[in-house]
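Sharing a chain and its predicted structure for anyone who wants a worked example. Both blocks are below, sequence first, tokens second.
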Amino acid sequence: MRKINLIVIHCSATRADRDFTEDDLEICHRRRGFNGAGYHFYIRKNGAIKTTREIEKIGAHAKGHNAHSIGICYEGGLDCQGRPADTRTEWQIHSMHVLILTLLRDYPGCRICGHRDLSPDLNANGEIEPEEWIKACPCFDVKAEWDG
């Protein structure tokens, strides 16, 4: 059994006005050379939670952090003009909270963060600031939602 100590939240970086199914995600990741979707869970705009990779299988979602993490991705993350934005629907927010709380029962003590929060701390001040983000993913402040 894998030791899990991290839950990483991602967005699909797709526009809010377009659908991007779990099948689209699978195809996209296979084209990038992965052996299937790199995330363990995918949350559609309607709140449906799709299992896209077994938890026991190491993910392909956060380089350097995959061995001990679970990856959750939600559909969206870009506004209708293609700019990073918190596009989560009420259903996605609810489903994400239910999924994370469920995972915390099985893997207590996990740190929960956004993909961008794993960017390098370039100025070594102990905080990953927006100018240090490699990408905006997941386009909302995970820490603000889960540290409080």
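Comments welcome. Strands lie at 6-11, 14-15, 41-43, 49-51, 69-74, 77-78, 111-114.
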